[in-house]
Specification:
Blueprint: E1 13-18, H1 33-48, E2 52-57, H2 65-72, H3 76-100, E3 105-109, E4 118-119, H4 122-130, E5 134-138, H5 148-158, E6 163-168, E7 173-174, E8 186-187, E9 189-191, H6 192-198, H7 205-213, E10 218-222, H8 228-233, E11 240-243
Parallel strand pairs: 1-2, 1-6, 2-5, 3-4, 3-5, 6-10, 9-11
Antiparallel strand pairs: 7-8, 10-11
Helix pairs in contact: 1-3, 2-3, 5-7, 6-7
């Protein structure tokens, strides 16, 4: 019997999308140990509520393939493969922090690096979730020209996540960048189609289209505020909701 003191989560299985930049903290590069420890504690809290959690992390704190190609003339495919390896570094760092707080975790990689991660196989990923393990899905889709946003949308559907939680450093979706435009309008709720029509920088257009076609909602929220991940899971009105 469930403990009556334990709150009931609104979602039973989620995909948490983290940007690589969110791991930097106030540094200009790399991984801030305090930030990643804070994330691990938050993820453990929602796992303890009985929620299945899959994570996808970007690699922009270490390497951004598209920027390298634009600035330095690097081949796009090479740059994207380097970016995939950066996501693997972040995934291993998060796994280490999660296991330090007592959470069983598996890193599943779309490119084979068997010494440090399991290959991503959908049925295996779902089985890990059924066993109560956190899964961290690395290396995007394994293909160049696809972002980790698109990978997050695709993996959310494959593991049957009810919602994508997109953790950012702002408190929702705005008509313009609120850090540059002080009077930008914040949306509490918006449709996938409106996001595409207005060119809002929520996720890339491929990811938004996938979510729209498969009716997967997205919540965009500020993960820098302690407890926000748990609040979202419990159904509090945090951030902005993107729905069909």
């Amino acid at each position: 019997m469930a403990d009556p003191a334990t709150p009931t989560p609104k979602y039973q299985r989620v995909l948490l999308k983290l940007s690589g930049e969110s791991l930097m903290g106030r540094q200009g590069f790399g991984i801030d140990s305090e930030v990643i420890s804070h994330l691990a504690e938050e993820i453990r809290e929602i796992r303890d509520l009985g929620v299945g959690v899959a994570c996808v992390i970007g690699g922009g704190n270490i390497f951004r393939g598209l920027a390298a190609g634009a600035a330095g003339g690097m081949d796009r495919v090479t740059g994207d493969h380097m970016g995939m390896l950066a996501t693997l570094i972040n995934s291993l760092a998060l796994q280490d922090r999660l296991e330090h707080v007592g959470v069983h975790t598996r890193v599943l990689s779309a490119i084979e690096v068997r010494q440090v991660a399991e290959p991503y196989i959908r049925r295996r990923a779902v089985r890990h979730l059924e066993k109560g393990r956190i899964i961290i899905i690395a290396a995007g889709t394994g293909n160049p020209y696809f972002t980790t946003d698109t990978a997050a949308a695709l993996r959310a559907m494959e593991v049957k996540a009810e919602i994508i939680l997109k953790a950012t450093r702002v408190d929702g979706i705005y008509s313009s960048d609120p850090e540059k435009v002080p009077d930008a309008v914040r949306y509490d709720e918006i449709t996938h189609l409106q996001v595409l029509e207005r060119g809002l920088q929520v996720m890339d257009s491929t990811a938004i289209s996938l979510c729209m076609d498969n009716r997967v909602p997205i919540i965009v929220f500020n993960s820098n505020i302690r407890g926000n991940i748990r609040r979202v899971i419990l159904g509090e009105k945090i951030g902005s909701l993107v729905r069909s």
